[in-house]
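Figure 3 (text version): structure tokens given as input.
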């Protein structure tokens, strides 16, 4: 790979990572709002499930317009990882801002309400996980905004390494 190709790869990945972050931030917002609106939780899950397809479509655009229709597996994999990385950085910033300034304990209170419902109490006792769930909720309430943000960043980067393999495999093309 020449230095010019590397610069082009990073430029496309940064732009597409910014677009990916908008998709992921939308899914995050739908998930938070979906705590009281169940339909939005479904929208959030479908959006999250669609992110690999979104990255694949952006990789096809990079292949067809930036690489003149040629793309090796390695270059496609690097693009996918970088796109998830750049998108994850912006999502991490949004997550930090949300938990530091906007949440004010909303998410934990929603989880508490869910776990205090009679159905949840009965199911937790049936499976013998009531103590573990309460401990998990206590641990979640002690997390700082940066902890949530770093957890999101590591999850997105790991998903980039995972999803990058099939994306690059299916989008490679030689002329």
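Below: residues designed for each position.
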């Amino acid at each position: 790979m020449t230095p010019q190709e590397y610069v082009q790869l990073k430029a496309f990945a940064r732009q597409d990572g910014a677009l990916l972050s908008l998709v992921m931030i939308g899914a995050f917002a739908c998930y938070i709002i979906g705590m009281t609106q169940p339909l939005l939780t479904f929208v959030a899950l479908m959006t999250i499930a669609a992110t690999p397809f979104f990255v694949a479509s952006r990789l096809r655009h990079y292949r067809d317009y930036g690489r003149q229709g040629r793309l090796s597996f390695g270059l496609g994999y690097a693009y996918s990882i970088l796109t998830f990385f750049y998108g994850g950085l912006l999502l991490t910033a949004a997550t930090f801002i949300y938990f530091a300034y906007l949440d004010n304990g909303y998410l934990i209170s929603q989880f508490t309400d869910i776990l205090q419902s009679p159905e949840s109490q009965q199911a937790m006792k049936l499976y013998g996980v009531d103590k573990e769930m309460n401990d998990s909720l206590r641990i979640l309430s002690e997390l700082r905004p940066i902890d949530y943000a770093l957890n999101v960043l590591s999850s997105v980067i790991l998903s980039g390494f995972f999803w990058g393999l099939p994306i690059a495999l299916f989008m490679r093309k030689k002329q």
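The chain has a mean pLDDT of 93.
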